[in-house]
């Protein structure tokens, strides 16, 4: 049986997310991101295309490393302004039935109790369609907002994340028994007191004692996403995550990364197939290859490679504006995104080569062609690398998602590589076809 492709829309509650500058395109509507109808219309479009979910990115802080100021970030709206993504979920869920929601929340600026309560509440309201993308942050600008000077060390952030998740698991999985809620009017018993338990947690990072306020939601624990790519990040992700988001590259590079993740999952006592792996992609498509190439050239007139550099500078914690166009950028240890920064050690990278990669202002692999061409390319990419699906970034919105639904998805369906209807059930069940709850082997179950 061939593998069915999983697909998320990759977006953010802002104007410019990954492919920068395209907000200036006459057909782009992303400047309306602060209007609820923008998001409800998107949700309807994605569910009509049978997308598994909308993956909402987020950052805490701003991109102020490039030229040591915010000028390019503000002018080009490089994820600034950006709004809280979790505020979108209830409205999008209200007008859909199946679409899942993977929401990024940075645990470095949260308390486990409040985050766990928020996600459990939304899992109830969405009838089990919530996912959490777990991040620890990478911007010193975020630390300054909270009265600190700079990020904690990379591995220390993961130490805190381990403790954070342990406490969340206790709330979600161990405070309430599954059948605690009775709703029995005759005996005036809404909840059986014997089946609700206090949790007790004390560690170097967090202390908490008492009963979780939210009864078991349809999934109990939201579907867990993570994107760690450093050695410590992969160890963390393969211990906790059910879906892992990785960067692109050549087929050989991605295949090697996928194998690394699967092998590490085994070392962590997990079935490697209990983890679904997604790659971020950008697609420009149309009725045929010629029209798609014309559309790409049109988009390029509005894209901003420099805005892409401003974004990249903060990702690696290095001001890339100080280097000449063809000067090799040296590797320097950084406390930002380790896996991105490591590329300076492994490759000859210049500002010019980065701008060439940022043709549409973003750094994800770019696929251009008619629907049949794109469908075949992505199937080949998935089959050769061993990934499970894609996070599709926006270019011109909502056009880019509509184009993909119109031209690519029918070609996948013809090849029996994409669903023709949703499975009934929670987001976790839709992804794994094995019920609503975490697998018994997951570390949350054994606390």
Automatic annotation (TrEMBL):
Gene3D superfamilies membership: Luciferase-like domain (3.20.20.30)
Ranges of residues in domain Luciferase-like: 30-388
Record-linked InterPro entries: Diverse_substr_monoxygenases, Luciferase-like_dom, Luciferase-like_sf, NTA_MOA
Binding sites annotated in the UniProt record for FMN: 58, 104, 154, 158, 230
Pfam family, one: Bac_luciferase
Flavoprotein found in the keyword field: yes
Keyword Transferase appears in the UniProt entry: no
UniProt keyword list: Flavoprotein, FMN, Monooxygenase, Oxidoreductase
Molecular function in Gene Ontology: monooxygenase activity; oxidoreductase activity, acting on paired donors, with incorporation or reduction of molecular oxygen
NCBIfam families the record matches: FMN_nitrolo (TIGR03860)
Family: Belongs to the NtaA/SnaA/DszA monooxygenase family.
Name of the protein in its database record: Luciferase-like domain-containing protein
Organism: Acinetobacter nectaris CIP 110549
Phylogenetic lineage: Bacteria, Pseudomonadati, Pseudomonadota, Gammaproteobacteria, Moraxellales
């Amino acid at each position: 049986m061939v593998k069915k492709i999983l697909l998320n829309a990759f977006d953010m509650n802002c104007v410019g997310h990954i492919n920068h500058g395209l907000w200036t395109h006459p057909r782009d509507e992303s400047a309306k991101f602060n209007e609820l109808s923008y998001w409800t219309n998107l949700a309807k479009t994605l569910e009509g295309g049978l997308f598994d979910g909308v993956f909402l990115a987020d950052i805490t802080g701003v991109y102020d490393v490039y030229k040591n100021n915010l000028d390019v970030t503000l002018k080009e709206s490089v994820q600034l302004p950006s709004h809280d993504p979790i505020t979108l979920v209830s409205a999008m869920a209200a007008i859909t039935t199946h679409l899942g929601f993977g929401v990024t929340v940075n645990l470095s600026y949260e308390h486990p109790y409040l985050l766990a309560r928020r996600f459990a509440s939304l899992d109830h309201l969405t009838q089990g369609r919530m996912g959490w993308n777990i991040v620890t942050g990478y911007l010193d600008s975020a630390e300054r907002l909270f009265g600190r000077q700079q990020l904690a060390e990379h591995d220390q952030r993961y130490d805190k994340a381990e403790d954070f998740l342990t406490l969340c698991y206790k709330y979600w999985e161990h405070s309430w028994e599954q059948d605690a809620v009775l709703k029995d009017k005759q005996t005036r018993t809404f909840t059986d007191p014997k089946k609700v338990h206090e949790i007790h947690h004390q560690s170097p990072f967090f202390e908490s004692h008492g009963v979780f306020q939210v009864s078991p939601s349809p999934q109990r624990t939201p579907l867990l996403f993570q994107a760690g790519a450093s050695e410590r990040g992969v160890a963390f992700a393969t211990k906790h995550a059910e879906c892992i988001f990785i960067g692109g590259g050549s087929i050989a590079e991605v295949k090697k990364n996928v194998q690394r993740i699967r092998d590490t999952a085994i070392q962590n006592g997990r079935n490697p197939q209990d983890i679904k792996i997604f790659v971020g992609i950008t697609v420009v498509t149309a009725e045929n290859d010629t029209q798609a190439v014309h559309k790409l050239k049109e988009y390029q007139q509005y894209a901003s490679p420099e805005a892409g550099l401003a974004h990249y500078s903060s990702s690696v914690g290095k001001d890339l504006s100080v280097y000449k166009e063809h000067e090799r950028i040296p590797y320097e240890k950084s406390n930002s995104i380790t896996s991105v920064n490591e590329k300076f050690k492994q490759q000859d990278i210049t500002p010019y080569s980065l701008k060439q990669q940022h043709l549409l202002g973003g750094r994800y692999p770019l696929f251009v062609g008619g629907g049949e061409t794109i469908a075949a390319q992505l199937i080949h990419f998935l089959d050769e690398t061993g990934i499970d699906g894609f996070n599709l970034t926006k270019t011109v919105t909502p056009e880019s998602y509509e184009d993909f639904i119109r031209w690519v998805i029918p070609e996948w369906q013809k090849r029996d590589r994409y669903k023709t209807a949703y499975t009934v059930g929670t987001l976790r069940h839709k992804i794994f076809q094995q019920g609503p709850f975490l697998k018994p082997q997951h570390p949350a179950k054994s606390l």
